[in-house]
Amino acid sequence: MIRVAGGERLQGEVQISGAKNAALPAIIATLLTSEPVILHNVPHLADVDTALELIRALGKEVFWHGDALEIRGGEELRWEAPGELVQKMRASFLALGPLLARAKKARVPLPGGCALGPRPVDFHLYGLAKLGATIDFADGAVLARAGGLRGAQVYLDFPSVGATEQLLLAGALAEGETVVVNPAREPEVADLAALLCRMGAEVRWDTDRVTIRGQRALGGAEHTLIPDRIEAGTYLLAGAITRGKVRAKGVAPRHLASLLDRLALTGCEMEVGEDWVEVLGPSRPKPVDFRTWPYPGFPTDLQPPMVALLTLAEGRSTVTETVYAARFGHVEPLLQMGAKIQVSGSVQVVEGVERLRPATVEATDIRAGAALVLAALAAEGISQIRGEHHLRRGYENMPSKLQNLGARIWEEEG
Ligand code: UD1
Predict the structure, then answer these.
(1) Which domains does the chain have, with CATH numbers?
(2) Alpha carbon distance 318, 326 (integer Å)
(3) What confidence tens digit (pLDDT) does each residue in 287-345 have?
């Protein structure tokens, strides 16, 4: 568990790691080639370890050199993904497209629901079927076959990050052009496209679509992952909620536009450099309404941490979650800490309180965990957060990064 002695104003600089959500598809993209791929700026995270375990199980070799990964081998890929790895992490499902393209068949377990509610993979399967795959289900797994994938046009009913990535991965080795209409435009999707281009694919972004021209084979490449905008946002919010002054270094400020806009409305003062952002928290935040939305809208992954800040606002904020059916794992524990939040459908009405109180609470997913850490940093006294393994899935060295900002936070055997 994590123990936090809250009430300190955070101050200082924090170096932001490479993006988890860019690292995972990039690691899986290496299944598309047997030539070496070198990835730089890779965060050391439990989810990255899971992705590496997955590609090793499928036939790749992996070597760490500091924050760089060298991935090679895999002339012959195994075509069955181990079930426990997909259960552990949904992103493992992205292996389906590359396996189909390289091994012509694939068996990948269905990921099932998670703490954020039901999360189907219907768009992934719809898209792959349009590219010529036959899809069957057996024993909770997808069994897919394709003699050869052929590019096609796929309209996504929602700009799903995973489905867009799945189709870029499969399309990279399909014959002809694969066109995704209404694609996700998250920076992590664009980063995957950039890696695929370095490996030899051709990708074109238009207003309403992304087009990938498949190749017979892809080659090796060297690529540096983009910074983690969600990690950066979390530390900026840690500065804001403790009335502190935190500078996040090594970030892409343009990826944080929606957060910075809303933070300004809460009364935060901000400075933005080429690759850094600094936030100075107000003595008490003003309430602000927002809705989560696909990029460049407000990221759903920062909704729980932003709600943590708004629990201390002077007035009522209305927060609408539009990306997930039920992303409210932070609400119950925040109530235990004295917050006032009412959930109705997809809307949280947050009635700001003057202070939060410390408590022993449980993190149920990565970003709910981040919200609880922020609340604990603001609540005077000692809080304990169980379920720390969720934080390790998505935040590299979180306790020591926060300690460097002056937080009193420790990891303990729970
Ligand atoms: C990715 C991110 C996750 C982030 C999410 C939304 C990774 C590893 N994870 O997840 O951190 O919260 O984007 O920005 O990059 N959906 C369907 N059918 C599908 C696919 C998705 O109904 O076939 C729904 C999901 O249930 C969800 C919504 O679409 O409600 C968004 O999901 P999606 O964009 O696919 O998220 P992920 O790729 O799973």
Answers:
(1) 2-17+227-411 (3.65.10.10), 20-224 (3.65.10.10)
(2) 16
(3) 999 999 999 999 999 999 999 999 999 999 999 999 998 899 999 999 999 999 999 99
Q: Which residues line ligand 1 (CB under 6 A)?
A: 21, 24, 90-91, 119-124, 158, 160-163, 184, 188, 300-301, 323-324
Secondary structure class of 352 (helix, strand, coil): coil
Catalytic, 114? Answer yes
Q: How many A from CA of 159 to the centre of ligand 1? A: 9
Q: Is the pTM of this model over 0.85?
A: yes
> What totals of helices (H) and strands (E) does the chain contain, helices first?
14, 23
Structure tokens at 181: 């209409």
As a whole number of angstroms, the distance between CA 345 and CA 117 comes to: 13
What is the number of other CB atoms lying within 10 angstroms of the CB of residue 61?
Answer: 12
> How does pLDDT run across 190-211, given as a tens digit for each residue?
999 999 999 999 999 999 999 9
- Give the residue carrying structure tokens 């238009």: 206
Element (H, E) at 316: strand 316-320
Tokens standing for 347? 């809307």
Q: How far, in Å, CA of 27 to CA of 24, rounded?
A: 5
Contacts of 217 (CB under 8 A, 6+ apart): 33, 173, 200
Round to whole Å and give the CA distance between 129 and 119. Answer: 19
Distance between alpha carbon 229 and the CA centroid of its chain, in Å?
9
Residue pLDDT, tens place only, 50-60: 999 999 999 99
Nearest Cα residue to atom 29 of ligand 1: 160
